[in-house]
Amino acid sequence: MAWQGWPAPWLWVSGCGLLLVAFVLLVSPRCCRARRGLRGLLMTRSQRLLFRIGYSLYTRTWLGYLFYRQQLRRARNRYPKGHSKTQPRLFNGVKVLPIPVLSDNYSYLIIDTQARLAVAVDPSDPRAVQASIEKEGVTLVAILCTHKHWDHSGGNRDLSRRHRDCRVYGSPQDGIPYLTHPLCHQDVVSVGRLQIRALATPGHTQGHLVYLLDGEPYKGPSCLFSGDLLFLSGCGRTFEGTAETMLSSLDTVLGLGDDTLLWPGHEYAEENLGFAGVVEPENLARERKMQWVQRQRLERKSTVWTQGWGQAPSPAIWSPKPWPVGASQSSGLFKSELLEPKRVGGWAGFPVLGPFSSFCSPSQCLSPRSARPPWERSAPTTHS
């Protein structure tokens, strides 16, 4: 009865023990490492929570749109002619025109020059895209959105209102603004001679898509518009996925031909190759590519439309496919400039494509692959 109304004795003992441990951690000079670890753990968890709150506000409320509009105004003032100098590519009547927007983004116009029809990819700055449409003298009939983030979808509203017959394509999983025509894995969008296939590549966002322009109809190279999945020697952050999901999505584009041109959503080449240099400073292929990128960026020239995937290796992500241990080269996508394979955790892993930032460690990427996305369909749809 002496303890009635008071906490039980074991609670008192536990509380005193915790206070003693906290006092020792705070006072003892020998526990500074433990103090730093505890403080780092608390800060990591709080930062993670704050990031999730901020990301939800950015993607699910109009605060994200207001933030995007502020970015747009600043970029227009800072780069009135765009952040980089770009060059269009013409392939037998099909023209690909990169448009530098915001501070490091790229939008694209894919033009059938005979039919005078155009498709816009990720038109984040409607003014810049509209200026290119008027300069080329074409009709915008479709917008292809890789994912929902405002720096890729911010121009959907203005362009779809200005061009009444324009269709907005994207994944229904992603909540893309002003979406009119949902796409699933392997669906095809047809505009004139343009045959553009959507590939589901979740990881950066849940419904991220990339778009593959088939080169066969116009007898030219195929083109991959990769959004935030893939950059020159890098891949996107995993905002809504895991390392396994991102690696599975990268595998989706592994089978593309070695002559496929890469048209990424950002100018991240120098940062990616710099990160790769920290991981493998003796990678000569990376060093050669870095020198080329630095020459381009000194003149503010773009590094997009990289041809030959093997020219841009980065060692930060390892493919867990069982390559022959003694092999010196891979085939297909990364065949030309890779170093000797390294055996990691029982797998012979080739350096594949590394992150823009701290995407994942090799050990994380060696875990088993996740299954194919549930929205993949056995019978793709063709949109014309």
From TrEMBL:
Spans traversing the lipid bilayer: 6-28, 49-68
Protein keywords: Hydrolase, Membrane, Metal-binding, Transmembrane, Transmembrane helix, Zinc
GO molecular function terms noted in the UniProt entry: hydroxyacylglutathione hydrolase activity; metal ion binding
UniProt keyword Phosphoprotein present: no
Domain of life: Eukaryota
Ranges where the record places region Disordered: 363-384
Keyword Transferase applies: no
Gene Ontology BP terms: methylglyoxal catabolic process to D-lactate via S-lactoyl-glutathione
InterPro entries listed in its UniProt record: Clx_II_MBL (IPR035680), Hydroxyacylglutathione_Hdrlase (IPR017782), Metallo-B-lactamas (IPR001279), RibonucZ/Hydroxyglut_hydro (IPR036866)
Gene: LOC109699426
Cofactor: Zn(2+)
Pfam assignment, any one: Lactamase_B
Protein name: Metallo-beta-lactamase domain-containing protein
Family listed: Belongs to the metallo-beta-lactamase superfamily. Glyoxalase II family.
Organism: Castor canadensis
Domain Metallo-beta-lactamase: from-to ranges: 104-266
GO CC term, one of those recorded: mitochondrion
